[in-house]
Amino acid sequence: MSVDEERVRMGIDGLDEMLSGGLIPGSFAAIVGTYGTGKTTFALQFIWEGLIRGETAIYITLEESEESIVRYMQVKSWDIDQYRNTTFFVLKLDPTNFNLSINSIRNDLPPLIKKYNAKRVVFDPISLFEDLFDTDSARRHELFRFVDMLRSEDCTVLMTSEADKDNQYSSRHNLIEYLVDTVILLRYIRSNESSQVHLALEVVKMRLSAHSREIKPYEILSDRVNVYSEANVF
Q: Which residue numbers delimit the KaiC domain (predicted)?
């Protein structure tokens, strides 16, 4: 079996190479970054890669409406309409309604995954879900419960998280990094010699797999993300 067949490809040039071919099937990954680093773009490209490979994907959002997500993908020239409500489903949660959001995750998500045999699930952003809880202990308990619930499903899960406002190397609540198998950190880098700002990423964690530990530049293009795995950040 080839590396591509063994791995769940992100569909992002350069990043899959850094991940030794992609994510491990059935694993959990988190993309952590501050505003403007393209977390949602990474997540949607992960979804799109699955759809064009014939997989079913579920996108759970606490920020954007389904219409805005679809419109964003259309701007990328991705023909998403052919997949809507057949192999692509959006579950919109209300971050202001605690009980409704929690019940939707517990009661609606697992049957949806099973019914359509979903292979890819995105949660964007998990940090807003974490914000629903008042204490660190409640937050930790519910996230552990969420991860355990999905561990029993035959799908690969990708979450996005806002970085801590005081530490761009950590998620907002400094918790999701410990629960997932893979952590991809997105951040800005400004060289000492120049005022120009570059986007850069690193794979800071990947369980049960070799992976690149180098910091690599990336670019958000009109139709895709490119990670320049052969280049150095300067």
A: 6-234
Domains in the chain and their CATH numbers?
Answer: 3-227 (3.40.50.300)
Characterize 44-65 residue by residue with b for buried, 16 or more Cβ atoms within 10 angstroms of its Cβ, and e for exposed.
bbbbbbbbeeebbbbbbbbebe
pLDDT, residue 5, reads 53
187-218 in b/e form (b: 16+ CB < 10 A) is beeeeeeeeeeebbbbbbbbeebebbeeebbb
User: Whole-model pTM?
Assistant: 0.93
Q: What is the pLDDT of residues 102-121, one digit of tens each?
A: 888 888 899 999 999 999 99
Contacts of 49 (CB under 8 A, 6+ apart): 9, 10, 11
62: its two tokens:
């606490």
Largest CA distance in the chain: 55
